[in-house]
Specification:
Nucleotidyltransferase, domain 5, 2 domains, four-stranded mixed β-sheet, single chain
């Protein structure tokens, strides 16, 4: 039995050739030989694959061996597409769909899209499962092509036949764009808040903050006095009308007061909440985290 097919590609030829030479163990153990011949060219390189051998056991026929070879080849090529074509496809999609972005932003957009596609979940096992799903769809397309053709142009396959895979890439790029746009808006918002804080005189030397788990907060000054109620009353109407939540009110109060220092009372650890992260970015060096005091413990016991 002799079976031959030809692979045509612009890039990735070296990696694919090396994978061919170190794969197909099952076939090689049964006496089959795979010959890999490379023919460099411009702009395409060609790899000629020739599988030869005999089926002596009677269990497998020639067609079975050829199908097994095609299936394993499709798996190898699908892996190569994910590892060597994917970043190029994502970058091209970013440049094509978001031409108005500076080149640095396009590069950042592409990096984020790669991350979304490969690390979209905190669970690594789920990421591997999703990658396996993409690989399986690609290998199925390749196997379908090999059933009726003896030549496979990998670039042509990727660009014109893998519609579902390309749809996933477009989705990842669009998702990355929204993420990048939101981050820029968020950074602009932080810069605006910092500008307000830095350009107005402080109305208090110190503000102490305790953030409860339910979103409520307690404020007092350096003398231990509760921050004047009229500051909270300024935003009471917005709270009642649901235009602002408690997080927005806390940030608004701190921007209005613009204290010289802010002390977080949370038994030695900065709270990992969105308002705490915003306050940290806006006030930076003005922030102190209380290592633990009676007031910290008192508020925590009260909230339980």
């Amino acid at each position: 039995m002799i079976y031959s097919l030809e692979l045509v590609m612009q890039n990735g030829e070296k990696h694919i050739r090396e994978r061919m030479e170190t794969s197909f163990f099952w076939l090689k153990e049964r006496g089959f030989t795979l010959t890999v011949q490379t023919y460099p060219g411009e702009p395409y390189n060609r790899i000629q694959l020739t599988l030869s051998g005999s089926t002596h056991s009677g269990v497998f026929h020639d067609d079975d061996i050829i199908y097994i070879f095609k299936h394993q080849l499709a798996e190898i090529l699908a892996e190569a597409i994910l590892n060597h074509w994917e970043k190029k496809l994502i970058r091209r999609q970013a440049e094509r769909n978001y031409k108005g972005l500076p080149s640095a932003d396009q590069a950042e957009l592409a990096d984020r899209a790669v991350h979304f596609l490969r690390r979209c979940n905190d669970n690594e096992s789920l990421n591997l499962l999703l990658k396996f799903g993409r690989k399986n769809k690609i290998s199925h397309n390749i196997l379908e092509h090999l059933e009726t053709h003896h030549t496979l142009n990998l670039d042509g396959l990727v660009n014109f036949s893998l519609r579902e895979y390309l749809r996933e890439i477009r989705f990842a790029v669009d998702l990355a764009y929204e993420d990048l746009k939101n981050e820029k808006q968020y950074n602009d918002f932080i810069r605006l808040l910092k500008y307000f804080v830095e350009t107005q005189p402080p109305k208090a030397v110190e503000v102490n903050i305790y953030l409860a788990e339910n979103g409520a907060f307690h404020l007092w000054d350096e003398k231990g006095h509760v921050i004047e109620q009229d500051l909270i009353d300024l935003y009471l109407e917005d709270i009642l009308s649901n235009e602002n939540n408690l997080d927005d009110v806390l940030i608004s109060i701190l921007i209005t007061v613009a204290p010289r220092r802010i002390i977080f009372h949370s038994l030695g650890a900065m709270p990992d909440t969105e308002p705490a992260r915003i306050i940290k970015r806006v006030f930076k060096e003005r922030i102190i985290v209380c290592p633990g005091c009676d007031r910290c413990l008192g508020h925590q016991l009260k909230d339980r």
